[in-house]
């Protein structure tokens, strides 16, 4: 169970704007077009499952290989994979993912959206201390987007992911963002 996610859901109920992404793209290969207009971004936090990889796999989805290489070139040693499925346990998958992607995987005991202090600690070793210079990229509103918004880090919501999910939480998140964006126009 994601205790951090559950507790932060109540924050969203009190402050719904926490669920509104700063930017939205349908798929991961659209992320560079957003980042091209954000010179103040110096580091990336990227979710794994259904963002750049198929759920349960430990490698970049082939369609996104060129995008991944581009981001690695633009953000050397400043691209951090933060996943609630990999990196939260010492199961060896983090090492496999690092080997397959060439990017660091955050080891954390608190799941998203509550692990941002660990993210800041990681990036401080690379000279990045300002949350607003770290973009949070992911397909989940109630973890990735909320984590960015809670910490003044811009969020890029990958709305369709690798595969458009019709799971109850994903359908709810898409409805919620659509509703909140229309309400705030």
Tell me what you see in this structure.
The protein is an alpha/beta fold and 185 residues long. The longest helix is centred in the last third of the chain and has 16 residues, at 168-183. The model has no long low-confidence stretch (mean pLDDT 91). It contains 7 helices and 6 strands; from the N terminus they run αβαβαβαβαβαβα. It starts with a helix and ends with a helix. The chain has a 6-stranded parallel β-sheet, sandwiched between helices. Helix content is 38%, strand content 11%. It has a single domain (21-183), classed as Rossmann fold (3-Layer(aba) Sandwich). The protein has helices at residues 3-14, 31-35, 65-74, 93-101, 116-124, 141-150, 168-183, and strands at 23-25, 43-46, 79-81, 104-105, 134-138, 155-158.
Sheet with most strands: 6 strands, parallel
Helix content: 25-40%
Structural class: alpha/beta
Terminal CA distance: 35 Å
The domain tally reads 1
The percent range for strand residues is 5-15%
Number of strands: 6
Order of helices and strands: HEHEHEHEHEHEH
CATH superfamily: HAD superfamily/HAD-like
Mean pLDDT: 91
Task: Report the CATH architecture.
Answer: 3-Layer(aba) Sandwich
> Strands of the biggest beta sheet: in what spatial order?
1-6-5-2-3-4
Radius of gyration: 15 Å
Instruction: Give the low-confidence spans.
Output: none
